[in-house]
Amino acid sequence: MENFDIIIIGGGPAGMAAAVSAKKAGAENIVILERDKVLGGILNQCIHGGFGLHTFGEELTGPEYAERYADMVRDMDIPYELETMVLDVAPKPDGCKAVTVISPTRGVCELSAKAVVLAMGCRERPRGALGIAGFRPKGVYTAGTAQKLVNLEGVHIGREVVILGSGDIGLIMARRMTLEGAHVAAVAELMPYSSGLKRNIVQCLDDYGIPLLLSHTVIDIKGKDKLEGVVIAQVDENRVPIKETAKLYPCDTLLLSCGLIPENELTSAAGIRIDRRTNGAMVNESLETSIEGVFSCGNVLHVHDLVDFVSEESARAGENAAKYALGAKREKCESFDIETGNGVRYTVPVSISPGNADELTHIRFRVGDVYKNVSVVVKSGETELVRRKSRILVPSEMVDLLIKKDKLQGISENIKVYLEEA
Ligand SMILES: Cc1cc2nc3c(=O)[nH]c(=O)nc-3n(C[C@H](O)[C@H](O)[C@H](O)COP(=O)(O)OP(=O)(O)OC[C@H]3O[C@@H](n4cnc5c(N)ncnc54)[C@H](O)[C@@H]3O)c2cc1C
User: Fold this and answer.
1) Cβ 81 under 6 angstroms from ligand 1
2) From ligand 1's centre to the CA of 88, what distance in Å?
3) Which domains does the chain have, with CATH numbers?
């Protein structure tokens, strides 16, 4: 059995950033395992701009951003194995982890690692999970599949398009399909607010005159072999369609942009605790899961809106995996859970050990609704750790709070993150 210090599962932006920082932190014997034929993950199909403003201070396309990290991986001589699918991760009695892989060169074999970084990304919520009436005609795609077909395979998928869900991938595909010569009739969104970034609504819908129908959904799909149209209706405050508002939109293409699901089958099978709010692993301040030495980062941990945040988070996971693999001394200290209240849907991490915290600890979260003029408060008992005023908080934009290490020292109760009227 081949032994590694660190095995990184997934060669997308998260896996590459984790590998680069693990190597910088002194780990030598690292490998990235990627099931695809190339490094880069989903970014390879995101040929539009807008990536890298935080990380590189310039606007890059997805493939350019991915290539910057792939260059670092190659320049630092970090080994990576492509067309290598990880099938299983399991803790061993000696504290190492057994990683079962399958690839054309290795066949099926078991590797061993002191530390593992989970960086498997996420997949899209498919039609089957949405429960829309109608047959299964051709012409219905998830937005990411359409993005791959159009941008990577050069396939012309349709002329008259409706998009369900205003997630960022759907908004970007509305513009892409328009640039490809199609007509996008509407983007229907179930919620009274968009689940995409404001900049994407402006640049991908408003600039092209594409209507965004908030509080609307597709209630029927017409056509048996080939899509002929969809019926869109307004929904009431309980998200129940109002039949009288139903309207037929003739179309040959329906794109679904209705959420992303972290790819955590390996994580669950390993026995790692999953947070039902994010569908990602429950991690502590070091991004370490409930199995010691297994770290998680990027979209497999929680869905991010900006890849720059993925890279930053994954660099921390890689550095912590290196410290673990190199046997850095750990303080045996008390850990405090992070509880959420009033408006805060989840946090990453879900617990903090002040003794093991870095100089700055990130707490990232999303709100469950639109909130105006609120303060985000982080408290432990009566000790206020952070208070930050916000003019507006929306579910589509992840919030990143920083807590200084000295603020955490001396806390004796669980931490609570909640919103308060400003
Ligand atoms: C369809 C889609 C389109 C997107 N478009 C945009 C966009 O236009 N703009 C934007 O800012 N963000 C976009 N995102 C968000 C984007 O995914 C993230 O910002 C970023 O790519 C997440 O990086 P990651 O490394 O966590 O995941 P990914 O980029 O998804 O990389 C995960 C990698 O892990 C590999 N992997 C998974 N399981 C295994 C396994 N068992 N064994 C080996 N390898 C495995 C996958 O093949 C993949 O290469 C999109 C996401 C999706 C799903």
Assistant:
1) no
2) 19
3) 1-123+260-330 (3.50.50.60), 126-258 (3.50.50.60), 331-422 (no CATH)
